[in-house]
Amino acid sequence: MADDLKQRRLHAMRGCDRILSGTRPKTIRERLADLEAGGDLDAMPDFYGGGPVTELEERVAGLLGTQAAVFFPTGTMAQQVALRYGVERTGVTAVALHPLSHLEMHERHAYSQLSGLRAVTSTHEPRNPTAAEIAALDEPVGSVVLELPMRDAGFVLPTWDELVDVTVAARSIGARVHFDGARLWESVIHLGRTLPEIVALADSVYVSFYKSLDGISGAVLAGSDEMAGFARAWRHRHGGTIFQTFPAALSALSGLDRELPRLPDYVRHARTVADALASLPGARVFPHPPHTHQFRLWLPYAADALAEAVLTLAERERIWFAGGWQDTDVPGYAMTEVTVAGHALEWTAEDVAAAGWLLAQELD
């Protein structure tokens, strides 16, 4: 039943002329076309590295301003290696983590289960920790992890000055700084700095290729040459040095060409979309204005009712509003994450309001 509903959603979204949140699902043939856009298909593939994988690593290192970058099949694996490197460098097995961080919420506590590390809570506030909170930690930590932006707090970012201050505070207590930068690409607008300026504040950073760049999969862990050597050794031990990964690498290169230049426009337009959504009856938006091209939306209906109304609207009107609704602790409200990308740039504030009115008609 769940698979049937998933297929219905995918079919409905692909059939829509207009998509407000998210991107149109791609077929395998369309994915293969992305690979062709990512490089020369007559070139030789990678063999445990080399080829398009090395090209991708070198390109990302250049974009981030780091000495080196190492491709990983998953961000979860990349982050475990980054934290293990912190232990090697500091001798401290505790790491400062937010309870809402990706490592706590979505990685099944791999840092403790695989590497024997221990979390020290950096803050309970729904944001990254401040310099004062890091300075006030009552036990040593080898690494301080900052998630930019913090997805499960609402895609929120610190200000540039706050980010600088917290990295200085981390080093003052003898800790390394690791950026969980899965969505770092789109954070430059809010922070008001270039990617190299942001990354220069950290000792290591992980970036994803599928979350914002529309890649198939994969990630990079970037930092010093020394860290990169360590990362390659431990990637092998984790089973992440794969015979051939050229599909993911070519897809990532395509995403860097196609989507990375568009992210600033997505972020700016998200503010227009968020304003329009906030004007709908009973709607709540957070953060407002959004810090990136993603933000949270609450509407005063049950999640199941919203999901069915969105599907009905998509199938009848060929308009996709937003999916992924979840009931919340706020009585009578469901929440979703809105992602402004691709076709959403075509939506005016009036278009958003009109779609919201049609959705309300389905629910009333």
Automatic annotation (TrEMBL):
GO terms classed as biological process: glycine biosynthetic process; L-threonine catabolic process
Pfam families from the UniProt entry: Beta_elim_lyase
GO cellular component: cytosol
Domain (Aromatic amino acid beta-eliminating lyase/threonine aldolase) ranges: 47-288
Domain of life: Bacteria
Family: Belongs to the threonine aldolase family.
UniProtKB keywords: Pyridoxal phosphate
Annotated protein name in UniProt: Threonine aldolase
Cofactor(s) annotated in UniProt: pyridoxal 5'-phosphate
Keyword Nucleotide-binding: no
GO MF annotation: an example: L-allo-threonine aldolase activity
Phylogenetic lineage: Bacteria, Bacillati, Actinomycetota, Actinomycetes, Micromonosporales
Coiled coil: none
InterPro entries listed in its UniProt record: ArAA_b-elim_lyase/Thr_aldolase (IPR001597), PyrdxlP-dep_Trfase (IPR015424), PyrdxlP-dep_Trfase_major (IPR015421), PyrdxlP-dep_Trfase_small (IPR015422)
Organism, scientific name: Actinoplanes derwentensis
